[in-house]
Design a protein that fits this description.
Blueprint: E1 4-12, E2 18-27, E3 32-36, H1 43-51, E4 58-63, E5 66-67, E6 78-82, H2 93-103, H3 108-121, H4 137-150, E7 155-159, H5 167-184, E8 187-192, H6 195-201, E9 204-209, E10 212-217, H7 219-224, H8 229-234, E11 241-250, E12 253-257, E13 263-265, E14 279-284, E15 289-291, E16 300-309, E17 314-320, E18 323-329, E19 340-345, E20 351-353
Parallel strand pairs: 3-8, 3-9, 6-7, 7-8
Antiparallel strand pairs: 1-2, 1-4, 4-5, 9-10, 11-12, 11-14, 12-13, 14-20, 15-19, 16-17, 16-19, 17-18
This protein binds adenosine-5'-triphosphate.
Length: about 375
């Protein structure tokens, strides 16, 4: 297995479009690193540069310490899995799995052994003599994975491999890929636009936007301490609430002064004293707006427009003055839509961003 290190990797397309504006990170040996971001952010371009399918405009790419900028894709010891499966329709599953190995002159006995092992790992044994047309979407994607597996590459590159599957199959294939990664201990770089896939699969996540890396960290670190408003609102569903206002402490009571003369009370410890008086974007995750029980003293009230029960919990669409808020409540004893819900903000969970830059405010040290 291998490390993949990017040093200020850049891609400028011939029309002058900067698709990747200098990306630096390293996937550790055996790591499953996920690249995530909205459509057009440059994640596929980045992966294709690692694969050798796209020329690198500037910067250095190292696989296992060796600079491979000018090494042909077939000599990089990587295997790529695409969204579109890219199976040969006229070949059986076994032939599809064997094809790349035969091309490389791998001995027949070895090919058979590798196919047997891959078929066992991916539960393809019963399907080996079928053609792709006779397989379900999930089975086709397993064959595509199998084709990468038999290559025994140093690095697996996966480009939206689950996007063509329905939601249920996506979830089960996600588990399968995680299991495969664990059992192989392989280095994998995985591209997706789906933040749930990124959060559940990635050991670390690289968040991209407009060709630039926004933040690299473990899923929970990104969730708990997003570096900017983009990362804060991209990860998490429903998305983090954002409110612009001025931080104040009137009569010793800290809060966010909003338009319309509204005041959103905040837990005292959340506000760094050096921030008082300044305008901020306050970020609150839906689960950090706490519903007060009837009779319990609430910090503020918000009109409940609509409830969306999803079984284990309910999403509440609220309005504080003009400001929409989404909260995540336990499914029982919910207030009725049209009523006022008594709320408070969970201590230690407020996020503060600079409205000018979108960056998280550094606490005064
Ligand atoms: N050959 C090309 N010439 C010019 N611009 C390109 C070319 N290929 C891609 N781009 C642009 O580069 C940017 C990044 O594209 P890329 O395919 O890497 O994005 P992505 O994040 O993978 O998006 P998606 O999730 O939609 O596939 C986009 O703005 C795209 O329009």
């Amino acid at each position: 297995m291998a490390t993949v290190a990017l040093d200020r990797l850049r891609k400028v397309y011939p029309d002058g479009h900067v698709a990747v504006a200098g990306a630096s990170f390293e996937a550790a040996d055996g790591e499953l690193l996920v690249l995530v971001g909205p459509s057009g952010c440059g994640k596929s371009t980045l992966l294709r540069m690692i694969a050798g399918l796209e020329a690198i405009s500037d910067g250095a790419l190292r696989i296992d310490g060796r600079v491979v900028n000018d090494v042909a894709p077939k000599d990089r010891d990587i295997a790529m899995v695409f969204q579109s499966y890219a199976l040969y329709p006229h070949m059986t599953v076994a032939e599809n799995l064997a094809f790349g190995l035969t091309l490389r002159g791998c001995p027949k006995a070895e090919i058979e052994e590798r196919i047997r092992a891959a078929a066992e790992t991916l539960e393809l044994g019963a399907l080996l003599q079928r053609r792709p047309a006779a397989l379900s979407g999930g089975q086709r994607q397993r064959v595509a994975l199998g084709r990468a597996l038999v290559r025994q590459p140093k690095v697996f590159l996966l480009d939206e491999p689950l996007s063509n599957l329905d939601a249920k199959l996506r979830a089960s294939m996600r588990t399968e890929i995680a299991r495969l990664h664990r059992s192989l201990g392989a280095t994998m770089v995985y591209v997706t636009h789906d933040q749930v896939e990124a959060m559940t699969l990635g050991q670390r996540i690289v968040v991209m936007k407009d060709g630039e890396i926004q933040q690299i960290d473990t899923p929970m670190a990104l969730y708990r301490r997003p570096a900017n408003v983009f990362v804060a609102t991209f990860l998490g569903s429903p998305a983090m609430n954002l409110l612009r206002g001025r931080l104040v402490a009137e009569g010793g009571k800290p809060g966010l002064a909003l338009s319309e003369g509204l005041m959103l009370p905040l837990p005292g410890g959340d506000i760094d004293p050096s921030w008082l008086g300044r305008e901020v974007d306050l970020g609150l995750r839906p689960e950090h707006l706490l519903l007060c029980a009837p009779g319990e003293a609430a910090d503020f009230g918000a009109g409940l427009d609509m409830l969306e029960p999803v079984g284990s919990e309910a999403f509440a669409y609220l309005r504080f003055g003009q400001h929409p808020l989404v909260a995540r409540f336990a499914p029982d004893d919910l207030p009725a839509p049209g009523s006022i819900a008594g709320l408070r903000v969970a201590p230690g969970q407020s996020h503060f961003f600079d409205p000018a830059t979108g960056l998280r405010l550094p606490a005064a040290g």
